[in-house]
Amino acid sequence: MLSDIEISTNAKLDKIINVAKRLNIDENDIELYGNFKAKITPKLQKSNSKLILVTATNPTPFGEGKTTTSIGLADALAMLDKSVCLALREPSLGPVFGIKGGAAGGGYSQIAPMQDLNLHFTGDFHAITSANNLISAIIDNSLFNGNPLDMSEILWRRCLDMNDRALRHITIGQGGKFDGVERKDGFDITAASEIMAVLCLASDLGDLKSRISNIIVALNSKKEPIYVRDLGCEDAVTILLKDAIKPNLFQTLQNTPCLIHGGPFANIAHGCNSIIATKTALNLADFVVTEAGFGSELGAQKFIDIKCKNADLKPDACVLVTTIRSIKYNGGVSKEQINEPNLEALSEGIKNLGGHIKNLSQTLNLNVVVALNKFSFDTPNEINFVREFCQNLGVKMAVCENFIKGGAGAIELANYVLDAINSPKDIKFSYEKSDDIRTKITKIATKIYGASEVIFEQDALNSLENIKKLGFEHFDVCVAKTQYSFSDDAKLLGRPTGFKFSVKDLEIRAGAGFIVAICGKIMLMPGLPAVPNALKMHIDTATGAISGLD
């Protein structure tokens, strides 16, 4: 079989101007970035179109194929003559050159050209990085010029869209008359920047500027917050983002339209594409397929409790993606034996799938359909075992082969989703807006993760007091924890319950309107693996052809 990049390179793509016409986008609302990608003017009116959320079980080293399934489902709906548009997140360069790879899907369920998507795209991430670091530069310039705002504790960190663990903790010098004076600082990955969050949650350019103004960057000597508006650079920061706030139009290999906008990483951010892109897609098509990052206990929970609350949205159906080998991995099978039939491990690991189904269908009250990504080594007995398990929990399971068949391999899934949409439900939230921050975190950890107790370490307790004093108890909560487990321990696989969940610290994101709970050993700046993808890539300097970018 051809590699992902070979499939993408050989695909017959339509010019993006024609893709726009199929969505009835006026040519005056399109800004072309070459032949195959464009920025479009947002459309934010209330819509009665159907929203389909795609999420997954906890990720494993093999990948479960959430984006691939999202694309296959959209292509399948298009093949059923439905008006459909994808609404996906943009990839980060960190995973592209690290271990996870790109975010264009795979096989014959890709968005294309995949090189364009995975390498810079339309520059949104660079604009967000520059906007973030402009604030840092203004802070340090103010310190250099006498610190008129009395900034005694700097909270704002720099960012970079690359996995670089050496930048987690750095020391910077002030220079000039402060030569020799040093200060501790550090970098987060761009997807974890609050600028990314406010871009994804903003309703328009005015709201974006307002949210930027409300970002807390430091505390003064009285422990009072200092905001971006106190620095006076909110307009300059917004100017850097005036184009980045517009959604990007792209297409699948089958020419299905796709809006790509906003950041990934539901383990350290809220991990959803932008509200503007989702609402625009709902204005352009009858059915919109979107996704939430990593496992449903992270991505789907944040999609419901943060994005849906902010945007007055609700999914009409929810697709839960899993694989046989993912289930067996959660049952304790080693990487070396993962492709061998093992019903005993399957019966143990399927508790992980069950936990996600129950969270989605009962706790969050969503219409759930399970999508099983099929591989050649999956046996009929294993597939039937998973199907019967799902049936016993009251949900349908579709076998998906869109990786090798394109949209035709997801027709069963598309039909199940259309059936689910016909049984509308009112979504439930994990917590109430009126709950205090401690209660919100406790409800997420106990109701969604399965913890018996939440331990707030001393830094977190101090932050809770500060949050209450500043009047931010009404904010939402964005938990930063490992994506590999329901718990805060990456090695605790399956469906653990009764564990103690540890909260190390809390960070205020006043512009985004949520509190980030730092839990377990999670880092906001990832590192590269021992052998990163960057070492496997090659470019033919005569033709410019790229290989290894899968």
Would you mind describing this structure in some detail?
By secondary structure, this protein is α/β, with parallel strands linked by helices. The mean pLDDT is 94. The longest helix is centred in the first third of the chain and has 21 residues, at 124-144. Strand 5 and strand 6 (109-112) form a beta hairpin. The strands form six sheets. Strands 1, 2, 3, 4, 5, 6, 14, 15, 16, 17, 18 and 19 form a twelve-stranded mixed beta sheet that branches. A four-stranded mixed beta sheet has the order 20-22-23-21. The chain folds into three domains: 4-38 and 49-121 and 247-421, Rossmann fold (3-Layer(aba) Sandwich); 124-240, Domain 2, N(10)-formyltetrahydrofolate synthetase (2-Layer Sandwich); 437-519, Roll (Formyltetrahydrofolate synthetase, domain 3). It has 19 helices and 25 strands.
